[in-house]
Write a sequence for this structure.
């Protein structure tokens, strides 16, 4: 909770700080990565730095956290914090790095606001920062403890043991720990970070949902991005084009807070494109546990040939007595429906909990349809691949 004095200052300065947050975060990243270029080698995603998505997501999270402190001082925005903390855990972010972030973030604030960055203003926003950082550090410490790690040991070498083409642009890779130790536990819907060394020698990490498992084996599914979509696809393209049995990559412990829930209430799994991957994992879990709960599986894609795990999903749905599915294909009549996903064509179960994954425009549109159908906002969850542009807003 903010002190009364700081709360008054933050409330008065929130409009101007929010107006300049994009500039502040741009200067923050420029300053920090300019003096610490090693952070781009394995930790920060340089594609998101180039596109500006990372700084916009950071700005949204800061503004969202500050707004919550003012509007709901007795509540903590756990959804926002959990999303960030899980991503940090998948990359091995540690407590000491928050001190580095603080230095360059407040340097960016001073450079941007100039004389408006009075000692009173800086002190108030310093309180906001450490409230947010302290909450994240606590959540991350708990997650590391649950994973049996310290934060400094989340990475292990894993060997590729199998490869299967899903679609022309999508491949599944089977992985096993190279050290022979047991694979870490995970919850269906979670992801791991995979780190690769690119042609220029820089290491980059990206997150991939776990789509299958068997003993020590874990499976990820990777979609290659075509020319014109780079540099965002530099890691996925390398893995899609080059990863072969025998290759070794550094893989993190599992993370992610969008997981299949316990209970017997209905769930709706909604995806588009490669967003089907956490849903495939949830279906596997439900099938393995003999679930009879109502499950509605909704997927949108360009066509059947571009639909990853299409046949596998059909088998899983067929093995679940309470499950039904619908597909929408924009360019084909081979699905259940043609065109964009339209919830008026399905019956949404009463009391359902909804899980979304896919491009942000898709999720935004479908989320609005669920809200119009009477699903409470708290019952709609989402997973996003890349910086979360909904933080503090959705």
């Amino acid at each position: 909770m903010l002190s009364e004095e700081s709360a008054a200052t933050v409330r008065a300065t929130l409009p101007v700080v929010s107006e300049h947050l994009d500039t502040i975060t741009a200067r923050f990243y420029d300053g920090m990565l300019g003096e610490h270029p090693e952070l781009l080698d394995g930790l920060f995603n340089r594609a998101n730095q180039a596109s500006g998505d990372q700084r916009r997501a950071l700005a949204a999270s800061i503004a969202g956290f500050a707004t919550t402190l003012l509007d709901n001082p007795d509540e903590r925005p756990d959804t926002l914090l959990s999303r960030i903390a899980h991503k940090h855990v998948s990359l091995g972010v540690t407590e000491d790095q928050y001190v580095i972030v603080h230095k360059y973030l407040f340097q960016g604030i001073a450079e941007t606001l100039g004389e408006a960055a009075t000692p009173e203003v800086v002190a108030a926003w310093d309180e906001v920062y450490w409230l947010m950082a302290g909450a994240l550090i606590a959540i991350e410490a708990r997650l590391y403890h649950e994973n049996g790690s310290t934060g400094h040991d989340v990475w292990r070498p894993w060997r590729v043991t199998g490869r299967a083409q899903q679609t022309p642009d999508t491949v599944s890779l089977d992985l096993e720990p190279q050290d022979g130790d047991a694979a870490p536990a995970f919850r269906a819907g979670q992801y791991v970070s995979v780190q690769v060394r690119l042609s220029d020698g820089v290491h980059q990490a990206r997150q991939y949902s776990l789509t299958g498992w068997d003993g020590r084996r874990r499976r990820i599914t990777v979609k290659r991005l075509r020319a014109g979509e780079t540099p965002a696809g530099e890691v996925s393209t390398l893995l899609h084009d080059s990863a072969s049995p025998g290759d070794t990559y550094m893989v993190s412990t599992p993370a992610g807070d969008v997981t299949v829930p316990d209970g017997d209430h209905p769930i709706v799994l909604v995806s588009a494109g490669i967003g089907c991957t956490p849903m495939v994992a949830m279906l596997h879990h439900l099938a393995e546990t003999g679930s009879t709960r109502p499950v509605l599986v909704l997927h949108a894609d360009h066509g059947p040939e571009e639909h990853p795990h299409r046949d596998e999903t059909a088998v899983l749905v067929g093995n679940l007595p309470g499950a039904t599915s619908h597909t929408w294909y924009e360019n084909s009549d081979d699905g259940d429906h043609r065109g964009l996903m339209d919830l008026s064509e399905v019956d949404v179960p009463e009391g359902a909990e909804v899980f979304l994954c896919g491009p942000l425009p898709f999720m935004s549109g479908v989320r609005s349809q669920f809200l119009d159908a009477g699903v409470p906002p708290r019952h709609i969850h989402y997973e996003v691949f890349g910086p979360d542009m909904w933080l503090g807003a959705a």
Summary: The mean pLDDT is 92. The domain at 4-147 is CATH 1.10.490.10 (Globin-like). The radius of gyration is 22 Å. The chain is about 40% helix and 20% strand.
